[in-house]
Amino acid sequence: MDPFRIGSLSIGVKHGGHVLIGKATSIEGAYILCDHGCTVTLGEDCMLSYNVQLRTTDAHGIYAVETGERLNAAEDITISDHVWIGQSVLVSKGVNIGRNSVVGAGSFVQKQSFPPSCILAGTPARLLRTGIVWDRREAEEVCFDDDSMDPLFRKWWDAAHEDMSSS
Q1: Cβ contacts of 102-108, under 8 Å, gap ≥ 24
Q2: Residue 111's closest CA among 131, 128, 97?
Q3: Starting from the edge strand earliest in sequence, which strands make up the sheet with 39-42, in order?
Q4: What's the pTM?
Q5: How far is CA 18 from the centre of its chain?
Q6: What does each C-alpha distance from 2 to 7, 29, 136, 141 come to in angstroms?
Q7: 91: how many CB neighbours lie within 10 A of its CB?
Q8: Residue 13 region, left (φ>0) first, then alpha (ψ -120 to 50), else beta?
Q9: Paired strand residues for 39
Q10: d(CA 95, CA 108)
Q11: Distance of alpha carbon 166 from alpha carbon 161, whole angstroms
Q12: CA distance 99 to 118
């Protein structure tokens, strides 16, 4: 089975929005809503599970009675390279998730930036751990001599070490 595939993907782009999806990304089932000139960026080698939503907008305006000002403006979403997003995750406007990260199933991620090589989860999502890297297969430990290792894993392993040494 090819690990890089699109199962079910629905994209709603309105009012000048843009959606960018990097190479070697797999999506089991996702809905992307991009509105008001915003951009959703999904990096390379990402993995999205089922029932994932990425939304730059609340889809309806909320306004201050005193001024008429819109209170819930649309904002960009940036999912960096090699991010694994678990089942039933909602990523809302203003989110930036660093490379090599994992978002736990059922999480609601909103208006926050998360560092590279981290695990975040919860409703609302919060940072649980840093200094991680993930692979598409399960193994008891990392062994670079194993022929079944995801060929990109070494790249992400080295990137995680870079992230740790620069922080």
Answers
A1: 102/132, 102/134, 104/128, 105/49
A2: 97
A3: 18-21, 39-42, 77-79, 96-97, 113-114
A4: 0.91
A5: 16
A6: 12, 16, 12, 23
A7: 28
A8: beta
A9: 18
A10: 11
A11: 9
A12: 8
Helix H, strand E, coil C: the string for 13-44 is: ECCCCEEEECCCCEEEEEEEEECCCCEEEECC
61-70's contacts with Cβ under 8 Å and 24+ in sequence apart are none
> Per-residue pLDDT for 151 more than 90?
no
Whole-angstrom distance, CA of residue 146 vs CA of residue 149: 6
Does residue 153 sit in helix, strand or coil?
helix
Name all contacts of 154-162 with Cβ < 8 Å and 24+ positions apart.
156/45, 156/82, 156/99, 156/100, 157/133, 159/82, 159/99, 159/100, 159/116, 159/117, 159/133, 160/100, 160/116, 160/117, 160/131, 160/132, 160/133
Structure-model confidence comparison of residues 143 and 100, the more confident one: 100
Q: Which of 135, 165, 139 is nearest to 152 (CA)?
A: 135
Q: Name the 3-class secondary structure at 49.
A: coil
More confident residue, 139 or 30: 30
Q: 22: which 2 tokens? A: 């990097």
